[in-house]
Every structure is written in C-alpha cells, then in structure tokens.
Design goal:
It is built from 21 helices and ten strands. It has 603 residues and is of the alpha/beta class.
C-alpha cells in the first residue's frame, strides 16, 4: 500500500511538472502578443517556406515520370526552372521569416529583462534579504540568456519545422496514401521517444539552472569578500567550496548533454527505418504498376524532408527544457507577491513638518519571535532622536519600519498624523534621507553620485551641497574634481570620503526626516570632525533619527531611546539617563566612556 501511494505521489508530481512546463511555454508565447503583427508576418512566410518544401519533391517526381522518361527536354527545362524557383522563394521566405521573428523575440526579451529588473527594484527587503544576491543576478542574466537562446533560435526553428511537417504530410497523402501511411508508421515510436527524452531533459536542465544559480551566488559572495578571505587565510577553503559547486554544475550539464546527444542518433535510426519501408513498399508497388518510379523517388525525398523537421522539433523541444527551467525561475521571481503595497486608496503624503509617532508598534521577521514589542514614541518636528541599545535590540528594525521597508505587525506609525499605510511609498520616501555606516556609491562620477539625491539638480546645487557636507575640499584636490570616477561601490575613495559624499547627497535631497545609521562608526577621528560638522548642518530644522555609538550626536539628542529586547526601557535626555544609572549608564561607561575632564568640559 505504501509503495503504491509513493508511486501515485511520484506520478502526480511528474504530471504537475509537465503541466507547469506547458503553462510556462504558453506564458512565454503570450509575451509575444504586443508584437503580433511581426509574428503574423513571420508565420505567413513560414507557410510560404513550407509550401516550397512540399512542392520540390513533387516537381522532381513529375520531371522523372513525364519529361525524363518521355524525352521531353523543354518540359524538363521548365520543371527544372520551377524547381530552382521554389528553392529561391523558400530561401528568401526563410531569411525574412527568421529576421522578423528574431526582431519580435528580441523585443520580448527586452521587455522580460525590464520586468525582472523592475521587480527586483520593487521587491520587499524581507524577500531580498532572504535570497543570495548571486542567485538573483543569475535569474536576471543566466536564466534570461537561456530563454534568449530558445526564443531567438530554437522557437523559430520549431515553428518552421512544424509548418513544414504539415505541408509535407498533405503532399504525401495527395500523392499516394499507401506510401504516406508507410512513411508515418514510425511516428508513434518517435513521439514516445520524444516524451521519454523530454522528461529526462526537463529534470536535467532544471538541475543545471539551480546549480548555475549556486555558482553565481558563490562567486558573487567570494569576490565581494576576497579581502576578508585573504586576511583570514581562507582562500584555499573558498576555492574548494567553489570547486564543489562548480563541479555540481558541470555534472548537471554533462547529464543534460548526455540526454540530448543520445536523442539525435535514436531519431536517425527511426528515419532510416521509415526510408527503408518506403523504398521497399514503393518498389513493390512500382513493379506491380500501381505507382510510378517518379512517385517513389518523390516519396523518398518527402521522407527525408519529413524526418528532418521532426528531428529539429524533437531536438529543439529537448533543448527547450533548459529554457523552460530558466523561465520557471524567472516567472517565480515575477510572481513573488509584494507584502508591502500601496493601499488602493493611498494618497500622496503632503509636505510634512516632521512629527513622528509610534503607537504600540510590534514587528517580527517571522511569526515566532517579535523583534519590536509595543513600542511607542513621540518625536516633535525638528527633534533629534538617538536610538541606543545592545546589538540586536531592534534599533535598525525600528528605522526599517519608519521608512516602510517592513510593515508593522500591530500598532501604527504616523507622520504629521498620517498613517504610513494610508500614503504612497514614493511620497513617503521622497521626504526622507538616509546616511548609513557603509554608504553605497554607484559606478560613475562624484557629481553623478551626489546628484542621485536630486536628479534634476544643477551643477551649482551639487557643489553647494558638497560644500555644506565638507566634501568640496577633498573633491577639488582630486585630479578630475567632480568628474572623478568613484569605481564600483566607490572603491576608488576612502571610507571617510564616501561618507562625505553620502552626506552631500542627503543635503541635496533636503529631506524632512533624516536617518543616520551608525554614520560615523567606521571613521577616523580627523574625518569624524568634518563629518560631525556636516551632520550638524544637515540636522538643523529636520526630524532626525540617529543610531550611533559616538558620543557627540547622542549627547546633543533631544531624546535618547534605550532599546533592549525590542522594547524601550529608558527614555530621556543624555544627562537624565546617566543620572538614572540604568542600562544607558552601563552602555555609556562601557562604550561611550570619555575622561572625566572631557565630560566636564562637554557639560
């Protein structure tokens, strides 16, 4: 009983996979709908090409029976000219059909790439953080390329071959139904063989797509972390781990290629059997005078022409499994549900003053554990709120909820009385600015990276923002000034320089609410003074939330929130919290300690 149940489950799973493959194939075809005119034009040319393929053998048989045996030279010449014309027309029809279909499929692929990129840009951080960046890149690059190889080449060949098959079958039955049936006698075996090999290929190519995603993810991670790997002497271990994933991908591709390479010879055997049947039966019928020699010769040509597109369709269908496996992964990404979406009646958030209220906010990354528990706070416009607490207490999570990168599980967050869930995300984030501990710079010039905060800003506005951020001095000292290329992720600049550019970008954006996430944590003392001066300028007149381990910003904050285990355990000004001698005082003495004379001076 158990064995039978397992067999049923396997059969149901295979049936579901086959059904999914059909849905994926149909979905790919539907993507061509906007370009139906080009597709229709291509299909028209396919009909012309198929007709020419069906007409060629008939003209050869006609030439043998009527003109060669009858010694009719003019008729033979006219037939030869007609045969040449069919080849020429077929050649041009195929040429323009391929061009037109290629144009349509490339437009489809461009649309698909854009859709995938837009989806990745809009994905919830919760989803992005749960996936490896390399795997997402593999879907955008490797999987799209596998689809490209299919729709731009194999799909066209399959469509042409299928139309050619229909044309040849019609011509064969019109010429002689007995020889036609003999020719098609091996077709059931061919379909069974195709189904068998397609099943093997589908499973093999699914594995190749998964393993190439693993390889891309491993490569992206190890290349990004090569500095750390060298510092900890982990390069040999990393090479070994990568080799294991690379070997898994190699083995998967070898298995897939073994399936496809075995399929071709098997089809050739069946084609040879069919040709032998036609030759034997045709010769027998010709001896009896039931068919002409020309008809037999024409049928042998038809059989050869018939099995050529069948072999093409079968081989391309097997190879298409790679594209379908890739498309499954791409469509899975496109179908990922957004957990944070604008409400149907969401309205644009008007220009805000900057009052922020957390009202009994709770949140967890999963249902098992709440990271924030019933958090409430009230920040007046222009106030600076410092968030401190042990690592993992929930400080960064609170900021993620304020920017609506995550959705509250219960409670509400309001800005100037507006519930964040009732306003559009774009209008909310357009009035927020963020400077993180490790600022992200894009490949391009310093000018472009600062202008990222306000895309329509003039050069003069960019320079003014850089001056306000104390970045103008070091930029001017660079050989190409504001046109200096920063390299990938800003790798050509120091950590402090990247931070100053990030602050300049925030100054240019002129946000009403500013978020500083450990903005001075990795900066040397000299650069910190420049950054702190820039931050003082940036903080003026803005509601600011600061996650910091440096004393100056915390001391000057209007409110210090001490978060521990997802709850606000202490709230007040710096001096008041020190006097309470609680968790803040403990953190201060352990992490924020300064000599007594400096503390007295600051006071």
């Amino acid at each position: 009983m158990m064995h039978g149940g397992m067999m049923r489950q396997i059969a149901e799973k295979e049936e579901e996979k086959a059904r999914n493959t059909s849905l994926v194939a149909w979905r790919l075809i539907r993507l061509l709908k906007p370009y139906w005119r080009m597709v229709a034009f291509s299909l028209g040319l396919v009909l012309v090409s198929a007709s020419m393929q069906g007409l060629g053998p008939y003209l050869i048989g006609l030439a043998i029976d009527r003109f060669i045996t009858g010694s009719d030279l003019p008729g033979l010449l006219w037939t030869s000219a007609a045969l040449a014309a069919t080849f020429i027309v077929g050649m041009f029809a195929t040429r323009f059909q391929i061009y037109s279909m290629s144009l349509a499929t490339q437009k489809l692929l461009a649309d698909l790439r854009r859709s995938v990129f837009e989806k990745v840009q809009a994905l919830d951080l919760k989803y992005v953080e749960s996936k490896q960046a390399g795997d997402l890149m593999s879907r955008l690059v490797n999987d799209i390329e596998a689809i490209n190889n299919f729709v731009s080449q194999s799909l066209i060949q399959m469509i042409s071959a299928m139309f050619a098959l229909v044309g040849i079958m019609v011509a064969m039955f019109l010429l002689d139904w007995r020889l036609a049936l003999a020719s098609l006698s091996v077709v059931p075996l061919m379909f069974l063989m195709t189904k068998f090999f397609s099943g093997l290929a589908r499973r093999a190519f699914r594995k190749t797509r998964t393993t190439i995603g693993d390889v891309s993810a491993e490569m992206e991670e190890q290349v990004s972390g090569v500095k750390v790997a060298q510092a900890f002497n982990r390069t040999e271990v990393n090479v070994r781990q990568f080799s294991e994933r690379n070997a898994a991908n190699r083995n998967a591709n070898v298995s897939a290629n073994a399936v496809t390479s075995a399929f071709g010879p098997a089809m050739e055997v069946l084609a040879t059997i069919s040709t032998a049947l036609v030759a034997a039966l045709g010769g027998y019928l010709a001896i009896l005078g039931l068919v002409t020699v020309g008809t037999v010769v024409a049928f042998i040509q038809y059989v050869q022409n018939f099995f050529r597109p069948i072999a093409t369709v079968s081989q391309m269908w097997t190879l298409a499994q790679s594209a379908f496996a890739a498309a499954e992964r791409v469509f899975e990404l496109l179908d990922t549900a957004q957990t944070i979406e604008d409400a149907p009646d969401a309205r644009a958030l008007p220009r805000i003053e900057g009052r922020v209220q957390f009202e009994g906010v709770s949140f967890g990354y999963d249902d098992k554990r709440m990271v924030l528990k019933d958090v409430s706070l009230d920040a007046a416009p222009g106030q600076t709120i410092a968030l401190v607490g042990p690592t993992g207490a929930g400080k960064t999570t609170a900021i993620g909820l304020l920017t609506r990168f995550y959705e509250v599980a219960s409670g509400a967050i309001r800005i100037d009385g507006h519930d964040l869930r009732a306003v559009t995300q774009n209008s909310l984030r357009s009035q927020m600015g963020m400077v993180t501990q490790d600022p992200f710079l894009f490949s391009g010039s310093i000018m472009d990276n600062i202008r990222y905060g306000k895309l329509d800003a003039s050069d003069e506005e960019v320079v003014a923002a850089a001056k306000a951020a104390n970045a103008h001095g070091f930029i001017e000292r660079l050989p190409e000034g504001y046109q200096t290329e920063v390299g990938e992720r800003g790798g050509m600049l120091s950590q402090g320089q990247r931070q100053l550019i990030a602050i300049a970008r925030a100054v240019l954006a002129d946000p009403r609410i500013l978020i500083l996430d450990e903005a001075t944590a990795s900066i040397d003392t000299r650069t910190e003074k420049l950054i702190q001066s820039a931050l003082n300028t940036l903080l003026k007149g803005r509601t600011s939330f600061v996650i910091a381990h440096r004393l100056s910003t915390v001391r000057n904050a209007d409110q210090v929130l001490v978060i521990d285990d997802g709850q606000i355990v202490e709230l007040g000004a710096h001096a008041d919290l020190l006097a309470q001698n609680g968790l803040y005082a403990e953190l201060y003495n352990r992490q924020f300690y300064t000599p007594p004379e400096e503390a007295g001076t600051a006071a």
